[in-house]
Amino acid sequence: MARTTAAMDGRHVRVQAQGGVPSIHRSGEDVSERKEMRVVVTGAAGFVGYHAAKALRRRGDAVLGMDAFSTYYPAQIKRARAERLRQIGVEVVEGDVNDAKGMRAMLDGATHLLHLAAQPGVRYASRDARSYADANLGGFVNVMEAARMEETRVVYASSSSVYGDDATPPFREDELACQPLSLYAATKRANELIAYAYSHTHGMNCTGLRFFTVYGPWGRPDMAVSSFTKKILKGETIRIFQGPGGSELGRDFTFIDDIVQGCLGALDTAGTAPYRIYNLGNTHPVTVTKLVETLQKHLRRSATTHYIPMPQSGDVLFTHADISAACRDLGYAPKVSLDEGIGRSVAWYLDHHGADGSRVSEEEWNYEPF
């Protein structure tokens, strides 16, 4: 992969490939004469990154994306997201957060960093634990070092998984969150502690956002909404995990548009306090069975389900966000109900994939989450 350097100024984002061939994305107007931000988005070809970069660009901010295009799930969907961003004037540079020099070059001239790049997933750690250490720990330190040297304000993704099973619902940010159940959750909690250390030692502005089960169009294929949708269309059995005593798992499913609103609110208010953590959720948790019922309604097809005891995979039993702090400080106000959000997700899925998978590659249609 060719190394790249990049820089941002008031008029444009410049991407310089090794070998001296420049590619220039112009913002369309001189943002140095306005108050719009110059934002680098890592993980820009990912689910949340794609939607956040699109929203920032459409409101007039200068945006430069970065993504490693990892193969944790089929990269075609990431390439497709990146191409759609390119069409609206957002360049997505292929790069790795573990490249310290490249990361600093990306932040040259940026006012804000929205750091969303990470190794996701709870269960995948049993197959490749090292990937979490590389991306979520070593990569995070590289990102923070680059932001420190470039004096860039940082907003980064954390996760509701940091709460484990010991928090009292609805989960508040002042919970200790000291008993994560998965390696993924442990790395996300470590990110919060690392950010605190950088804020305390270097005076950096760092905001962590604990996302609660994000779903929507262009969603990750390993997540429940996309995975269950495909299984219903294929007539395959959906396995639903149960907790102790046959109890149902519950999730605070949050639509992507609401999450993006929270991300933009965090960016807009970065600098009001040196260190902040906020929950971004919907506040209306539902059982997985309710999710499947809602999918059946919008797909107009029946699902075959099989209930099994939850394996020791690191999944939590229940999530429920207290969002009062985000509402107060970020202007966060989730609006999309599960019924509306699933309807929009299903419509996108059918348009993008086709009911029989005929519109996507065989690899994407046959992908099975770990």
What does the model show?
About 35% of the residues lie in helices and about 20% in strands. It has about 375 residues and is of the alpha/beta class. A 7-stranded parallel sheet has the order 6-5-4-7-8-9-14, with helices on both faces. The chain has a 3-stranded antiparallel sheet with strand order 1-2-3. Strands 10-13 form a two-stranded parallel ribbon. Helix 8 packs across helix 10. The radius of gyration is 20 Å and the shape is globular. The two termini are about 25 Å apart.
SSE pattern, N- to C-terminal: EEEEHEHEHEHEHEEHEEEHEEHEHHH
Amount of helix:
25-40%
The structure class reads alpha/beta
Strand content: 15-25%
Number of helices: 11
As laid out across the biggest beta sheet, the strand order is 6-5-4-7-8-9-14
Straight-line distance between termini? 27 Å
Contiguous uncertain segments of 5+ residues: 1-5, 17-34
**C-alpha Rg (nearest Å):** 20 Å
What's the rounded overall pLDDT mean? 92
Number of strands: 16
Let me know the largest β-sheet. 7 strands, parallel
**Which word captures the global form?**
globular
Key terms for this structure?
alpha/beta, disordered N terminus, 370 residues, 3-stranded antiparallel beta sheet, 7-stranded parallel beta sheet, 20% strand
Q: What would you say about this model in short?
A:
The protein is of the alpha/beta class and about 375 residues long. The protein is built from 11 helices and 16 strands. It is globular, with a radius of gyration of 20 Å.
Topology:
Layout: E1 4-8, E2 12-17, E3 21-26, E4 38-42, H1 47-58, E5 62-67, H2 76-87, E6 91-94, H3 100-107, E7 112-115, H4 129-150, E8 153-159, H5 183-202, E9 206-211, E10 214-215, H6 224-234, E11 237-242, E12 250-251, E13 254-255, H7 256-269, E14 275-280, E15 286-287, H8 288-299, E16 304-309, H9 324-330, H10 338-353, H11 362-365
Parallel strand pairs: 4-5, 4-7, 5-6, 7-8, 8-9, 9-14, 10-13, 11-16
Antiparallel strand pairs: 1-2, 2-3, 12-15
